Amino acid sequence: MTVDDPLIIVEVVLPTSGKTEPVDKLAEYFSRPTVRHDVLVWQKNGTIEHHTRDDGGVITTLALRAGDTLRFDPPGFEVLVADLSRVER
Description:
There is one protein chain. The chain has one domain: tt1808, chain A (Alpha-Beta Complex). The longest helix has 10 residues. The strands form two sheets. It has a four-stranded mixed beta sheet with strand order 1-2-3-4, covered by helices on one side. The chain is an alpha+beta fold. It is built from two helices and six strands.
């Protein structure tokens, strides 16, 4: 399934993925004007990277771990990082 105008992109990074592969995709994802959030779920260590673009086009990166809350604004909801990092290893 594909979405023409995504707001949020979530990618689970497998331990076998190349280290730079998801980072290389970051510029591609944010080249789409509708993308406001890119989330990388690093399966190897349970870390979450949240890249978010504000109204001015500035991209900020946060590293999150279990106990943190991932906020998506817009559209206006939250997810516990512990819930995302439960991806089967």
